[in-house]
Amino acid sequence: xxxxxxHRELTGxxxxxxxxxxxxxxxxMDFIHLPYxxxxxxxxxxxxxxxxxxDKRKDxxxxxxxxxxxxxxxxxxxANIQSLLDGATFTVTTGxxxxxxxxxxxxxxxxxxxxxxxxTLKEKYGEYNFVPVYWMASExxxxxxxxxVELFGKTLSWESEQKGPVGRYSTVGLDVIRAExxxxxxxxxxxxxxxxLANYEGKDLTEATLKLVxxxxxxxxxxxxxxxxxxxxxxxxPVMKKEIETEFSYHAVQKMNALLEKEGMKVQVHAREINxxxxxxxxxxxxxxxxxxxxxxxxxxxSRDALLNLIESSPECFSPNVIMRPVYQEWILPxxxxxxxxxxxxxxxQLKGVFEGAEVPYPLVGVRNSLLWIDPVNSKRIEKSGIHxxxxxxxxxxxxxxxxxxHADQELDLNDVEAAFNLLREKLLSKVMNTDPGLERMALxxxxxxxxxxxxxxxxxxxxxxxxxxxxxxxxxxxxxxxxPANGLQERSVxxxxxxxxxxxxxxxxxxxxxxxxxxxxxxxxxx
Length: 528
Fold this sequence. Notes:
By secondary structure, this protein is of the alpha/beta class.
């Protein structure tokens, strides 16, 4: 296997704003705290050392031990949990929705990025410990975004009528799609898939996801956290009360949005006046501020005091939205850095003032690695088509035209015809001007007509050659559709299991682990 890198700007797959987040964070200091690089971690460590208390560490370890109860733990996982009691231990975190069967590949890349980041930081800052964390978005309520997975070009979907936070969904019905999923494998691969998916069970989707992700990544010491608990939210009560009393997050985001727009940058999300949801009995509803109190759908109107008392007595019923969730994360973890996709980090740039209002240090934010995996079949297609690796990012029609021209230069070479036509044009115009200048317009019109006819002939020749090269052009279509499904990034649709038709899933994860570089900015291309 070979590893190549390509500057993201050359691929046409990323926007200018996204590329600034990757390559030029030093230009964004109004929106972030420190640029994402290995040296900045030394500064962030000093900040977190002073800010994160021993009591918070104990609460975190107690919750992790509770969540992992009943699961056979790898020694690395047990050691990492216990190490969080030590003031010299810090986390590096990524988060993601509870996509069924791990969803698209970038979920895997996110987790491997924080694992490799923790390993790399240990090499530089040996006196400290670094723990990779996957934050489960168990309170998200967008079921449509997590209910399907693509496997070998087919879409499998979980049918469920449940509502509210997806992490609280019962796993009833998952066994049906698990059987469909397994049916795509055979022999030793089937046995391996069955063994892995046997872990995908529990009283709810949160527990099932924890067990599955733990099975895939526990040997690397990954910790998985569900923050939807009474105990962890108990500590976050002061911030949630401040949100109700002052709406501080809304005002902070509005200020940052104005700065972003002044810089010509896109605002990713819009803050509400109250950036908390209320959760109960399968619902997750907005808290709406009224002139004389607050309103929650299905719960009715509440006074300010009644709402504050409810936060105090039942903090687990309150859920931070996209604006407040990052603050909650940094509140309960001794975290140095958040790793996310370019879309995610675009909204993190709106949150600096929210962190300041909550008196929580803003973490480093790094864009996860993006990888393009070229399997042996598509590698052969590239070779047979004579495409240079950097050309795979070209538009499909451009690639086809380039292929035809490259392989049919003699048939399509009309340079001598064009040269003869240009000479004829000059002689004809000279003759007209010397004989009767008044005929110049008529002559130019006739020349233009002939020129169009020549172009028409060239197009017909090209179409004829396309038929002659049909097999090669079909291969280009197949190549582009496999590497860039729907003209997008492969990692946003293809699943990990689609890369493992013959099994060896742990081996594939180990290969990806070795190719990830936590400080690589360019797109990584792996060619088998």
